[in-house]
Design goal:
The protein is α+β, with helices and mostly antiparallel strands. It folds into two domains: 51 residues, no CATH class; 422 residues, Sandwich (Jelly Rolls), CATH 2.60.120.920. The chain has eleven helices and 28 strands. The strands form seven sheets. Strands 6, 7, 9, 16, 21, 22, 23, 27 and 28 form a nine-stranded mixed sheet that branches. A seven-stranded antiparallel sheet has the order 5-8-26-10-11-12-13, with no helix packed on it. The longest helix has 32 residues. It is elongated, with a radius of gyration of 31 Å. About 4% of the residues have low confidence.
């Protein structure tokens, strides 16, 4: 009896409190009950939808151990492999057997445990020396380096091998310098000038082709230097495909898509003259690379996506409502997909690499093969170009012309990550045809990189410092005003970019982890 009276009093007190709440809310009891029932129904629907929703978890890194955290970054092992003698001095070159090489659609960068990044767990780091240099990872295994990582070369019985630098150029005006350490010597030039081409069975055309083993000149060391994108082949000379632009030492010719041509320079009378002098040991070759701003490049990429083309877009309208454009790197910015791995007990980030596309490969050889027949293309594909982009050549501080203008665009869809398409690529399916238009991510490493190639003992050095070896007179004022920067300065902005990317990746991963946890717990 007492229990029922107590329960009745409690119910009365609750009813009085409800009346006060309803009075304050200025709603009736029926409206309140309707609100409660609606809320319960919505919660049930959300739980049902959550159960039906497929939760795709991100690829989480394996947590580091205390040993990983306490172990200091080990300097790369340099194994003596090759000594190059250029007639003046001996150059000791090394291999780096404890480091992975970029290959098969994957690339690598060193990393370290970072307790401050509680979701990413690891951050990118650099291996010494801490300046721009030839890449530890992005070079042919048959290209060897000195201990300062500024000189590369190859054996005297190897064909063309290539290497890229560790930092790329995406926008702005940069001055890159190379010094030929081993290549054509003064003695070879003198012997070639004194002998007629017929004495070697050569004419001027055959002397300009890729060096062979049938003459003194063609059996000596040779080099090529220039810039190239990430897709350029490392087992071929720079300028072999559409991803690179090169200057060759014989006759100082320019090469792109394996097609060589002469470089024209303005004389004192403002007339064009052909510059065809051989580049020899000790020469300093400077290239001034000019690229438009990233804003302009993104406008071009946006127009390419809107028009579904890989060539120059016709309309640069910025007010295009396109779902594919909204889901691309244009709106989302830089996205990196990397996972920490261990290689020979050392930590590295493994990422998807950009690989050559069928259209660019077809550009090198514009024919369609049907069985035993090769039919030339009626219309040749022309990739999208960057306006106001160029490469200016300087030899020992003297301007020798502008060998290349309107360089090819590199932002997606001009570049492809085939290995990442199952996860990161966005595919638009055309209903009328089965063609697809693919937009891959921009991981922040797209751009043009200093790239050199060596042949039969050739060796070349890159200027890794801030001071220019041979400052051209026409660039002094631009250097002083900051309009032109030395390539050595690029390491500063690159380090900041990597740090910011690490912080952003950690924030994004933390959000995804919380989202995943909330969906699972609903």
């Amino acid at each position: 009896m007492y229990f029922h009276l107590t329960l009745k009093k409690k119910i009365e007190r609750v009813e009085k409190k409800m009346e006060i709440v309803l009075m304050l809310l200025n709603i009736s009891l029926a409206e309140f009950l309707r609100y409660i029932s609606t809320s319960i129904l919505i919660q049930k629907q959300e739980k049902t939808m959550a159960k039906k929703q497929k939760v795709i978890t991100r690829l989480k890194p394996i947590p580091y151990t205390l040993v990983d955290l306490s172990t200091s970054l080990r300097e790369p092992q340099f194994s003596p492999t090759l000594v190059i003698n250029n007639g003046q001095t001996n150059i000791q070159l090394f291999s780096t057997p404890d480091l992975p090489n970029n290959k098969r659609g994957f690339k690598y960068i060193s990393c370290r445990p970072n307790p401050y990044l509680d979701s990413l767990l690891y951050s990118t780091t650099d291996l010494p020396p801490y300046h721009v240099h030839w890449s530890y990872f992005d070079r042919s295994p048959e290209m060897f380096v000195d201990e300062k990582m500024t000189t590369v070369g190859t054996r005297d019985n190897d064909g063309w091998r290539s290497t890229r630098a560790n930092v790329g150029i995406r926008e702005g005006t940069w001055y890159i310098e190379y010094k030929i350490i081993n290549g054509i010597s003064d003695k070879e030039i003198t012997e070639t000038d004194n002998e007629s081409p017929a004495s070697h069975g050569l004419d001027e055309i055959s002397r300009s082709v890729t060096p062979m083993h049938n003459s003194n000149m063609n059996s000596s060391a040779h080099v090529r230097m220039g810039i190239a994108r990430r897709e350029a082949a490392l087992e071929a000379p720079v300028g072999f495909d559409g991803y690179g632009y090169a200057i060759r030492d014989i006759n100082c010719e320019k090469i792109h898509l394996s097609r060589r041509s002469e470089i024209k320079v303005k004389n004192n009378s403002n007339n064009d003259e052909i510059f065809n002098e051989d580049l020899k040991i000790g020469d300093i070759i400077g290239i001034l690379v000019e690229l438009p701003s990233m804003d302009i490049q993104k406008k071009i990429a946006s127009a390419m996506i809107s028009e579904r083309v890989l060539s120059d877009p016709k309309n640069m309208d910025e007010n295009v409502n396109d779902k594919l454009l909204q889901n691309s790197f244009i709106e989302k910015g830089i996205e990196r997909e990397m996972i920490p791995i261990k290689y020979k007990s050392e930590l590295f980030f493994e990422e998807y690499e950009y690989t050559g596309s069928h259209t660019m490969e077809h550009l090198l050889n514009p024919v369609t093969v049907f069985g035993e027949h090769a039919i030339p293309d009626k219309e040749r594909f022309q990739p999208a170009k960057l306006p106001n982009s160029s490469i200016t050549l300087y030899v020992n501080g003297e301007k020798k012309g502008i060998p290349f203008e309107n360089l090819y665009a590199f932002l997606p869809p001009a570049s492809e990550q085939r290995m990442a398409r199952t996860g990161g690529g966005k595919v638009l399916q055309n209903k009328k045809s089965q063609d697809t238009f693919i937009i891959d991510n921009d991981d922040g490493e797209l751009g043009y990189y200093p790239m050199v190639s060596c042949f039969r003992g050739g060796a070349i050095k890159i200027n890794s410092g801030n001071d220019v070896w041979k400052l051209p007179n026409d660039l002094k004022e631009k250097f002083n005003n900051g309009l032109v920067k030395s390539y050595g300065d690029r390491i500063k902005s690159h380090t900041v970019e990597e740090y910011i990317a690490d912080v952003i990746d950690n924030a994004v991963n933390k959000y995804l982890d919380k989202k995943e946890l909330s969906l699972i717990n609903m």
